[in-house]
Amino acid sequence: xxxxxxxxxxxxxxxxxxxxxxxxxxxxxxxxxxxxxxxxxxxxxxxxxxxxxxxxxxxxxxxxxxxxxxxxxxxxxxxxxxxxxxxxxxxxxxxxxxxxxxxxxxxxxxxxxxxxxxxxxxxxxxxxxxxxxxxxxxxxxxxxxxxxxxxxxxxxxxxxxxxxxxxxxxxxxxxxxxxxxxxxxxxxxxxxxxxxxxxxxxxxxxxxxxxxxxxxxxxxxxxxxxxxxxxxxxxxxxxxxxxxxxxxxxxxxx
Amino acid sequence: xxxxxxxxxxxxxxxxxxxxxxxxxxxxxxxxxxxxxxxxxxxxxxxxxxxxxxxxxxxxxxxxxxxxxxxxxxxxxxxxxxxxxxxxxxxxxxxxxxxxxxxxxxxxxxxxxxxxxxxxxxxxxxxxxxxxxxxxxxxxxxxxxxxxxxxxxxxxxxxxxxxxxxxxxxxxxxxxxxxxxxxxxxxxxxxxxxxxxxxxxxxxxxxxxxxxxxxxxxxxxxxxxxxxxxxxxxxxxxxxxxxxxxxxxxxxxxxxxxxxxxxxxxxxxxxxxxxxxxxxxxxxxxxxxxxxxxxx
Lengths: 254, 296
Fold this sequence. Notes:
CATH topology of the largest domain in chain A: Cyclophilin
Oligomer: heterodimer
Distance between the termini of chain A: 54 Å
Mean pLDDT of chain A: 89
CATH architecture of the largest domain in chain A: Beta Barrel
Mean pLDDT of chain B: 77
Number of domains of chain B: 2
Low-confidence stretches of chain A: 1-7, 249-254
Largest sheet of chain B: 9 strands, antiparallel
Strand content of chain B: 15-25%
Order of helices and strands of chain A: EEEHEEHEHHEEEEEEEEEEH
Number of helices of chain A: 5
Largest sheet of chain A: 7 strands, mixed
Distance between the termini of chain B: 32 Å
Number of strands of chain A: 16
Shape of chain A: globular
CATH class of the largest domain in chain A: Mainly Beta
Largest interface: A-B, 58 and 52 residues
Helix content of chain A: 10-25%
Number of strands of chain B: 11
Number of domains of chain A: 2
Structural class of chain B: alpha+beta
Strand order of the largest sheet of chain A: 6-16-7-8-11-10-13
């Protein structure tokens, strides 16, 4: 571990932690906090701009940046030296994102846990929807499934621990909450979060270029839609070109 | 008819895998790829392919494959298994071949692979490779995402996997000697980023205990009614004294001796074939060094 105290010259406090033999995690604070996230994203941008040979991938998370690297091309020591340079003068707001409005259907037929969440939080289902869709969320990170964005911060009265018994599977597009985070799960998956709706939005694609709709640093608000509008949006999404395809548009050769 | 391997029975879970698609974690897309990349590379070396070519990854129980090509060269590496080459659909028994070697087969012959022994994984490489388009630079199957590999899924009976070559030259077959691909009974471990969450007693207990692999169908969100309390899982990683960065990548012996950091040593010495980091660099070139021509 490499500890660095906050420095009058503008070096933020951070720790470097090894994550296996080909990754380093640079931790910039404790807890889920938009200010820490802003520093993580600023560092990510600065490191990506250097286009270092031997950096395989940079992966911003809630409070840290993990850098995957090839130690045979870029020794850990050199990578650490770069990171220390980049840390000087690092500040929030260097990296800003897009603002999105995503349609979400909170209809009880799709919102498996809406009643339960309402009961647990002492609100009516309508109030849960109101609270959940009434604020702007910050995208902290992507992970777990393709295009899956971890968004915060869920209002305190809706912040629940995960379900005691996780579900074996939830349908793709499920909108769920747990603690202060909310996610749309882009694929069918086992899940311990509370499902309160579903979104028809396609969150990822592999063609024409690998892309996720949401990126860390983006802002998201949810627009409640009727079941009918949800279904028509879903049908429209299904009509468009397949989001997953091979690298060659010609498909498999004979 | 285009050259193909025709799947008569798929085995338990047989997927097409290569060395994976690193670089998309920021989109939530896993690197994936062969669970045992050394065995994959060995199979490719035996088949005369580039080491990162796609091959079939067989889990626990093997498939039966019919050869729909004039001739093909298959190579097997990983677990031991009973591999039979049958002359056709009507044959009940045939020639037995071992893993860690290549074999040339002809149109109409059937390759039947039984249960795997000593490891859960066996790789079947085909000379010239499979004619499958990569997704994000890789032909690895991502089962949950439903893409990559053969139609984004495990093989099923009736699949015809297209081959690049309709015939292969006759030459002496290859064998690999002295490369033990059995599951190591001792796994190497590197401190993780949350090592300081654990007390030295917990860490000591972790390193002085023996472990049994449990049955679990998935790793995410699976209820585990018989799971011991969390405390017992929390023995995760060993503390090597200081975790200052100069120690990253050193073998324990080097740390003790205060020797220079040398990441290559770790990789060459590493026998954690299931860990991501070892994927790209473990046993560099060794597989090639061990190839022997088979004079059978």
